[in-house]
Design goal:
This protein is mainly α. Helix content is 48%, strand content 0%. The structure holds heme C (2 copies).
Length: 217
């Protein structure tokens, strides 16, 4: 009985995977991924840490993000669902196999420290902590951790870890959702949240998250 249920559950999962149309690529291989990532280190760095560029466009940390999430973003850049003129040519360099390979490569790296939250004051950090861990029901803002997982370290392949991500990058993404410029999640879960956040809220949660270090086992 139970094994029947598991078997049909597996069948369903496999069916969904095939329906997603990306199942032609083999499973990701981190060693091959390292080769394909040669073009990425200039910005995302050899340890996957990326960089907070103050006053410019920050390069996100890729180290420790879920492989599924990374692969989805790369396909979204390639197919124009996520628009960024810096990233697009690099996503376009990768074929479907290389996408899953680099995704495996970066997902296996330990999470690195984030930049950009160093000089935040106490009040700003307290507001950021509230939004990240408890939310703000008066503003209808759900806590970040309700989707991004305990510690905001990520949950499954869909919800990337946002703790220990660069403040400038988090801020830029929240603003992009607010302005309707990042529309690659068909359910637009982040758009609905970002539109309720003030400039101060965006700044607060970004610097607080950047100050959270994620212990790697
Ligand atoms: C010239 C700098 C640059 C290079 C080189 C580069 N990227 Fe990026 N990458 C960026 C920027 C900037 C962003 C953020 C884009 C945005 O704001 O939407 C980004 C975003 C990403 C994201 C989305 C991360 C997230 O958290 O959603 C992935 C995945 C990614 N890059 C992978 C790669 C891979 C793989 C390569 C090499 C094949 C590469 N990048 C090369 C600058 C670069
Ligand atoms: C209802 C679920 C949900 C909640 C609550 C939520 N998020 Fe998200 N978030 C998502 C999903 C789904 C994605 C991935 C979207 C995609 O695939 O492009 C995401 C992605 C992100 C990203 C992009 C990460 C990257 O590497 O590019 C940031 C930044 C982010 N969320 C910040 C927040 C913050 C800050 C909060 C709290 C104020 C929050 N999220 C609350 C669902 C949620």
């Amino acid at each position: 009985m139970t094994s029947m249920r598991i078997a049909s559950g597996l069948g369903l999962l496999l069916g969904l995977g095939l329906a997603a149309g990306q199942a032609q690529a083999q499973e990701g291989d981190a060693e091959r991924g390292q080769q394909a990532a040669g073009a990425c280190v200039a910005c995302h760095q050899a340890d996957g840490s990326g960089m907070s560029v103050s006053g410019g466009e920050s390069w996100p940390r890729l180290a420790g993000l879920p492989a599924e999430y990374i692969a989805k973003q790369l396909h979204d850049f390639k197919e124009g669902r996520r628009e960024n003129t810096t990233m697009m040519p690099f996503a376009n360099m990768l074929d479907d196999q290389q996408v899953v390979d680099v995704a495996a490569y970066y997902s296996e790296m330990p999470v690195t420290e984030a930049q950009g939250g160093e000089d935040a004051d106490e009040d700003l950090l307290a507001r950021g902590e509230q939004l990240a861990l408890r939310g703000d029901w008066d503003e209808y803002i759900v806590s970040c951790k309700s989707c991004h997982g305990p510690g905001n370290e990520g949950a499954g392949g869909t919800f990337p870890g946002i703790a220990s991500q660069h403040a400038g990058y988090i801020e830029a993404q929240l603003r992009a959702w607010q302005a309707g410029e990042r529309g690659n999640d068909p359910q637009n879960l982040m758009g609905a949240i970002a539109e309720r956040m003030s400039d101060e809220d965006i700044r607060a949660v970004s610097v607080w998250l950047a100050n959270q270090s994620v212990a790697s086992e």
